């Protein structure tokens, strides 16, 4: 899929040179009325923000702790400023709203509901009713019932006696998971939700640029793919979601004209870079998704050889990568960087971009990410990270970008990563992983071998 685009770009470049040359040789001539478009790719951008983990009891924040109200205020200010200056076509929140339990305190559902309400309301009012569409992706902390709980909770609020329901019921009547859009695409001229997902489980699809915009957003709830998930009928609901994803991808590919897909999820597939060490330094990394979750015979195009949730997922999406799927975003690690999704032969199939956290809980700096894409096909071109140099500071630091840190100049983000060696990929992630903080390098030096290993996602993990 990349060759024709390169040829087109080369053609446009040559056409541009020809026009410039002809103008130079006849400086007094009237400028051409129907001049060809400039050769540069016309891009647009969306903003991604994730993992606020608000602890609304505390003011300021520190490394290793959740977001206090001071940092949350600073992050909202930065988000508002970035919406004004970068004019994103949409904003997406990639999951995890409330504080974590700590060793001394287990968060109650009432406390979790309070944090969830504050973050949903804060996001909504920061974007503003005249602002861009705002989407939400389910995170593992967002079930009011508890970490890795079901998206819709049947347990009851002791104050009202009613079930907690979904996180959205803490900010009722606002249209979540889409703010500044329509609940149905029928007759809609702006961002809209497509039916077909299951609101009970939090996954859905949408048209962020409107039903004629050519871009379908598929939001997954990958919390139900993890070993920590405690909702009921896990293998059935996981397989149902996978079948639904396969159908969404087929619908996008079969549309006239074909639609591009942006895939968003909170818990990424692959290896957890922080899961080793309990049995010693030679421990194998654990998978982020459950390695024992068996969906054999339960999902869409199931075959006998693909039954782990990871293999079933990769078998579902790989036929669509670099054709229908034009970008993937994930969160959960709280770290910057990207993943390389490979096939069984080690060939790069997709690049998944990691959205860093607002919370400095993993000793990272608070950050918000801007992703630019080609307006003609929605393929990711670059990303830029805006960050605060410490949890008490404003986001004053000059942002850094994938292109700058990798020094690559291929047409798309995928082309850039494709052209890099495994070592070069790890080096870029290393430079971005901790959002350029000096604190962590000094106090908690990470295990770079494990992190380099965790960049690679392939079947059979
Ligand atoms: Zn988180």
Properties at a glance:
461 residues, Purple Acid Phosphatase, chain A, domain 2, globular, 8-stranded mixed sheet, alpha/beta, 17 strands, disordered N terminus, binds zinc ion, 7-stranded mixed sheet, 28% helix
Structure description:
- The chain has 461 residues and is of the alpha/beta class.
- The chain has a single domain, classed as Purple Acid Phosphatase, chain A, domain 2 (4-Layer Sandwich), CATH 3.60.21.
- It has 10 helices and 17 strands.
- The strands form 3 sheets. Strands 7-8-9-10-11-13-12-17 form an 8-stranded mixed β-sheet, with helices on both faces. Strands 6-3-2-1-14-15-16 form a 7-stranded mixed β-sheet. It has a two-stranded antiparallel sheet with strand order 4-5.
- Strand 10, helix 5 and strand 11 form a beta-alpha-beta unit.
- The radius of gyration is 22 Å and the shape is globular.
- It binds zinc ion.
- Zinc ion binds next to loops.
In short:
With 461 residues, the protein is α/β, with parallel strands linked by helices. The chain is 28% helix and 18% strand.
- From the 3D coordinates, which CATH architecture would you assign? 4-Layer Sandwich
What is the residue-averaged pLDDT?
87
CATH topology: Purple Acid Phosphatase, chain A, domain 2
Structural class: alpha/beta
Number of structural domains: 1
Spell the H/E element sequence.
HEHEHEEEEEEEHEHEEEEEEHHHHHE
Instruction: Label the overall shape.
Output: globular
């Amino acid at each position: 899929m990349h060759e024709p685009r390169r040829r087109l770009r080369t053609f446009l470049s040559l056409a541009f040179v020809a026009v410039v040359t002809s103008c130079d040789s006849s400086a007094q001539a009237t400028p051409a009325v129907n001049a060809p478009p400039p050769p540069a790719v016309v891009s647009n951008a969306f903003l991604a923000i994730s993992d606020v983990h608000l602890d609304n009891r505390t003011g300021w924040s520190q490394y290793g702790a959740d977001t206090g109200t001071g940092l949350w205020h600073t992050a909202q200010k930065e988000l508002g400023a970035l919406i004004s200056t970068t004019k994103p076509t949409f904003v997406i929140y990639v999951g995890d709203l409330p504080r974590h339990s700590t060793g001394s305190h287990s968060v109650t559902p009432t406390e979790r509901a309070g944090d969830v309400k504050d973050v949903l309301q804060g996001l909504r009012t920061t974007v503003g009713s005249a602002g861009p569409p705002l989407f939400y992706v389910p995170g593992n902390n967002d079930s009011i019932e508890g970490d890795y709980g079901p998206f819709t909770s049947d347990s009851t609020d002791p104050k009202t006696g009613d079930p907690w329901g979904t996180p959205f019921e803490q900010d009722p009547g606002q249209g979540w998971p889409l703010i500044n859009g329509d609940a149905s695409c029928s007759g809609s001229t702006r961002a809209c939700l497509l039916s077909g997902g299951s609101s009970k489980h939090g996954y859905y699809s949408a048209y962020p640029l409107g039903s004629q915009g050519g871009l379908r957003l598929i939001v997954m709830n990958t919390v139900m793919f993890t070993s920590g998930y405690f909702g009921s009928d896990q293998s059935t609901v996981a397989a149902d979601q996978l079948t639904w994803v396969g159908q969404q991808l087929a619908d996008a590919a079969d549309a006239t004209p074909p639609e591009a897909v942006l895939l968003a999820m909170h818990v990424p597939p692959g290896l957890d870079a922080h899961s080793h060490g309990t049995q010693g330094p030679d421990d194998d990394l654990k998978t982020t998704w459950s390695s024992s979750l068996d969906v054999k015979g339960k999902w869409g195009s199931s075959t006998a050889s693909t039954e782990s949730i990871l293999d079933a997922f990769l078998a579902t999406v790989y036929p669509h990568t670099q054709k229908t799927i034009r970008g993937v975003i994930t969160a959960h690690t709280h770290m910057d960087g990207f993943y390389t999704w490979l096939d069984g032969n080690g060939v790069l199939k997709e690049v998944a971009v990691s959205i860093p956290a607002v919370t400095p809980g993993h000793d990272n700096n608070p950050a918000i990410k801007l992703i630019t894409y080609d307006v003609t096909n929605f393929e990711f071109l670059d990303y830029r990270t805006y960050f605060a140099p410490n949890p008490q500071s404003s986001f004053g630091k000059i942002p850094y970008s994938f292109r700058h840190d990798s020094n690559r100049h291929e047409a798309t983000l995928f082309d850039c990563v494709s052209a890099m060696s495994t070592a070069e990929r790890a080096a870029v992630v290393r430079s971005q992983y901790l959002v350029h903080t000096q604190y962590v390098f000094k106090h908690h030096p990470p295990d770079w071998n494990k992190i380099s290993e965790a960049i690679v996602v392939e079947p059979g993990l």
